[in-house]
Design brief:
Blueprint lengths: L3 H14 L15 E9 L2 E9 H5 L8 H15 L1 H4 E2 L6 E9 L24 E10 L7 E4 L1 H4 L5 E8 L2 E8 L4 E3 L2
Length: 184
């Protein structure tokens, strides 16, 4: 029998495999706001994040200059080091397993995902969709998660979080400068 957490994990992974424009997801594209879905299940943590590129880069289009291309590369490097952005308690012995970044308008594409940019020509808005997966040897020690997105990306002001744990589902919001998300 499939648990609720396993089902949600599958749905999150399926949703990430086919990124859609923000308006098609039923979400408003709001500058300064990041949407996070976080699922903990059987020693794993999956974090799906959607953010307007403006929050991360200061623009939402293809890079036009070498400096903008360097900003895209720096952003991708920072996101790929997700264990620095999403810090779990050392006692939980967590390890980053996978990072997927999808923002075709700036050249980041997830293999097997649709080739359409996550933007709409009418709005000119583009998002980054990211998936971060961790495994934790001591999952019982997962009491919190420190999120360093505010420190790393000055354009982020608010993080809306949908959290699913074995204890249930909750919604939380972090506003700058808060960084700690309680997982209990």
């Amino acid at each position: 029998m499939m648990t609720l957490q396993t089902l949600v994990s599958i749905l999150l992974l399926s949703a990430f495999a086919l990124p859609l424009p923000a308006h098609a997801k039923g979400k408003a594209h709001a500058h300064g706001t990041v949407d996070v879905n976080l699922v903990t299940d059987a020693g794993s943590i999956k974090i799906q994040m959607t953010s307007p590129l403006d929050n991360l880069l200061g623009f939402e289009r293809s890079p036009r200059t070498d400096a903008e291309r360097q900003r895209v590369e720096a952003m991708a490097t920072q996101l790929r080091a997700a264990d620095k952005l999403f810090r779990l308690p050392p006692a939980a012995a967590c390890q980053l397993n996978q990072v997927q970044l999808h923002a075709p308008v700036v050249g980041l594409k997830t293999p097997g995902a649709e080739s359409e940019p996550s933007s709409t020509p009418q709005s000119g808005h583009s998002d980054l969709d990211a998936l971060f997966e961790f495994t934790c040897a001591q999952a019982a020690q997962l009491s919190h998660l420190d999120i360093d997105l505010f420190k790393t990306f000055s354009g982020i002001q608010r993080i809306n979080i949908q959290l699913v744990t074995p204890r249930g589902q909750t919604q939380q919001t972090l506003k700058r400068p808060a960084q700690r998300l309680k997982l209990e």
